[in-house]
Amino acid sequence: MRLVPILVLSFASLALGCSNPIAPPDGVALGIYNLATVDATNLELSPDQTFRWGIYGCDFGGGGAGRWEVDGDNVVLLPVAGEDTFTWMANGSFVNATERVELSSGRFEGEITANGSGPGGAFAQTWAEGGTCAVCGGMLGPTGQEACEDPYLGGVP
Q1: In-domain check, residue 6
Q2: Rounded CA gap, 151 and 137, in Å?
């Protein structure tokens, strides 16, 4: 009799267009990561195989989004279906049109490494677990950063 609820859920999932979530490989966990930059720069990997990232510098904000796939031991960030590129933060600019970024486990626990290329050339980045928020005040740009649970991930700050 326990098969009935499982079958009902399976059929309901198919009817609603749901699929079983795919887990990323060891060393690249779902969640929020931050890039050590002057501006608060955050990346979120979601269970529905999407990602979004944002950069916020008090006097500006930006970001991008797309989908992710597992490729061996890596997670590959790709544009949304139907697009050729997505915007990515690299080489001092957050407006790089990028086709793919490969994420792998970092040197230390809680870190991931992002490798890719764009108009500014190849890049390698180290992202740490957890989100950061800009501390705004004074002149243009942030006066610092602090850990936060609801970091800017594109959209309206």
Answers
A1: no
A2: 17
Say if 2 falls within a structural domain: no
CA 34 and chain centroid, separation: 9
If you count them, how many residues does the chain have?
157
Residue 116 belongs to a domain with what CATH number?
2.40.128
User: Residues 70-80: pLDDT tens digits?
Assistant: 999 899 999 99
Beta-bridge partner residues of 41: 35, 55
Which H, E and C letters describe 26-89, residue by residue?
A: CCCCCEEEEECCCCEEEEEECCCCEEEEEEECCCCEEEEEEEEEEECCEEEEECCCCCCCEEEE
Task: Answer whether residue 157 is part of any domain.
Answer: no
Q: Which residue has the tokens 């979120």?
A: 44
Q: Whole-model pTM?
A: 0.80
